[in-house]
TrEMBL record:
Classification via SUPFAM superfamilies: DinB/YfiT-like putative metalloenzymes
Pfam family, one: MST
Record's protein name: DinB family protein
Ranges of biased composition (kind: Basic and acidic residues): 26-37
Region (Disordered): 1-37
Coiled coil start-end: none
Stored InterPro entries: DinB/YfiT-like, MST-like
Length: 196
């Protein structure tokens, strides 16, 4: 049975755009890898890098209002909120857990969860700060992992449990994969782009 859409289903929604015209970059210019990793480290680091690049592609060419648009009410989620959230996640796992730094949260006081999303407003200064924070945390994480020769190296979490670098990288791949799926839907709601 074919699904029918009512005018209310399409009201204020951009028309989906498919095929090559909808790609964020031409395939030959895509900065992400096509696999071909040679060992466990390059595979884990490579897939995480690719997901980070995917998030950047999903946010490309949008203004502050579009990045901050909460596209699926009543959710607080937006592309800008995801960017801020992932900066916080990077900071928490790599600075606080793996490096053992006493790094305060970026967007939420201790014990609160939604500051990254609550503060994601359509202000160019907020967008600029979010990109700066995310890129800074990603650079720190990449340098720290590169300087850690053994993926079995363990770090203690706040609950007393330990996590290896290997487990942490897998967790981050999972975190980005989940949120890049959200980003797919958020971006389509903003301007109809569904590619890559």
């Amino acid at each position: 049975m074919a699904e029918t859409r009512t005018p209310a289903d399409t009201e204020d929604q951009p028309a989906p755009r498919f095929a090559w015209s909808n790609m964020f970059v031409r395939p030959e210019d895509d900065p992400r890898s096509e696999g071909g990793f040679h060992d466990e480290r390059s595979m884990l680091v490579g897939y995480l890098r690719d997901y980070r690049l995917t998030l950047e592609l999903k946010c490309a060419d949008l203004d502050a209002e579009q990045l901050a648009r909460r596209s699926v009410p009543p959710s607080k989620m937006s592309l800008l909120g995801l960017l801020r959230h992932l900066a916080e996640v990077e900071r928490s796992w790599f600075r606080r857990v793996l490096a053992g730094q006493d790094a305060p949260k970026l967007y939420s006081p201790e014990g609160e969860r939604d500051g990254a999303f609550d503060g994601a407003v359509g202000d160019p200064a907020v967008v600029e700060e979010a990109w700066r924070a995310w890129r800074s945390e990603v650079a720190f994480a990449e340098d720290l992992v590169a300087a850690t020769p053994d993926l079995a190296t363990r770090a203690r979490m706040s609950d007393g449990e330990e996590i290896s670098v290997r487990e942490l990288l897998l967790h981050m791949i999972e975190e980005y994969a989940r949120h890049c799926g959200h980003a797919d839907l958020l971006r389509e709601r903003v301007d109809g782009r569904v590619g890559q």
